[in-house]
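Students often ask what a holo structure prediction actually looks like on paper. The answer is less mysterious than it sounds. You provide the chain, you provide the ligand, and the output is a string of discrete structure tokens encoding the 3D arrangement of the protein together with copper (I) ion.
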Amino acid sequence: MRMCDRWLTGMCLVMAATTVAMAAPPKGFEQVDTEVTIGVQPGLMKYDKAEFTVAPGARVKLTLTNTDVMQHNLLICKPGEGVTMEVAKLAWALGADGMARHFIPDSPLVLHATKLLDPNASESIYFVAPKDPGGYPYVCTMPGHAFTMNGVMHVHQAGKSGGGSAGPGGLADVKYRYYEGDWNALPDFDKLTPVASGTNAANEFDIKPRKRDDQFGFAFDATLRVPVDGKYTFYLNSDDGSQLSIDGKMVNDFNGLHAPGEHAGAADLTKGDHAIRVIYFEKSGGEELHVAWSGPGFERSKLSPDYPTGGGSSGLNEAFTVLVTDRPMLRRVLMPNTSPRSVAVGLPGGINCVFDTEIGCVRYGWWGRFINTGPESGNGTGRGGQTCTILGDRFSVGDNGYPLRVGDASATPIVAFRGYRPGKTAPQFLMSIDGTDYTQTIDVAVGRIGLTYTFEFAKAPSGPVTFSVNPAGLDLSSSAGKWDGGTLTVPAAQARTFSVTLAQSASK
Ligand code: CU1
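The corresponding structure tokens follow.
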């Protein structure tokens, strides 16, 4: 419960109430056919299992152990593309009731669910696996988590023992050949002699085995295990060019010299093993290769060490969409409804906002994917002349202009913007008010759709500090001081560092 120190007492009460003891199995489940244990990769907003397999009709014991520092749950859903996001949105729509209801929406799309688990807590749920074979997606419905925190329960006959691990979907036998040369487009690697070759033990398309950062290329050959018949989409995001083919057929052609950007291609595939080839080259500058796929019952899932990545537009009419996962992302771009001097901030887990450096405040937030820099917005730099679009649903942060006053609350302060840095998990904006420097750290409001700001002054403020926003539709809280409507007053003695949380209230 150490994390509680950072957050609000109200949150801690809810968290304490949700700690779940290990209960005895219900009748009929004293013996199960399949036991599945799932953990959480700390700080990555991901389960430690992207998939598991059970036999149709098997009695299943599924244990979720929360090995992370924030709360998570796990909901098993009906099959279908986009179902996890649909369920997540229903959960998020619970608003202020969400925590109490463990973010489990009343929906026929939800088959089974764990409660919201505290850090270190564990819960087992028991159920009979569906009779119909297929991919049953599972997802964490804490606000913002669903984009990355998901997986698939495969239901199909796997040997006669019932359950166990049948070959899961994904890559196997990844082999690489590494080349060096100065190209402006992908060469025919089969006609060239590789400088080195090998296998990738992690079974990923990984360009780490390179011996230099410019003028090199890779040809990867691997087996792609396709879990069920269906349409699959393959994403390439590379600098410079790359191509992906399956069974000798081009699926995604992202050849040429360019900045990173997402490029997608789709293929209808039958269940079973297919030969997949990814080729890639880099001339000069940045070098990146990111590969991912999505298909029936599962969201975009990576085939390279990480995905997504930063970068700009592909310039190929593909929406440039990035979900910010484990690290904040900052983009100085033209954004709607703010001054031209604004910074788009993507926080881990799909909570985003825009900080207006001209005014010195956050203007609004949105949850979902990050921004579309658009095909017109410059050569992949994301700094062109066009306004970007936000991807996702907007939420209010009560923007009322510059929010702070020190000492005399009625005097207009002299405010200056000094810079920003991404920080490890939360970005910081360095400002000054009446000559005193301070930082505003912007973080996700845990368990809510909203933001937490931490203000830290370089020296003790000379008088009380007030922070004001438009309170409409917001649940306001803070680490110190008293609220009066949308105005928080923090006594000088407590004002050197304080935080405020602005979360969407249930009624929006
Ligand atoms: Cu989660």
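Residues 1-21, 159-168, 309-320, 375-384 have pLDDT under 50 and may be disordered.
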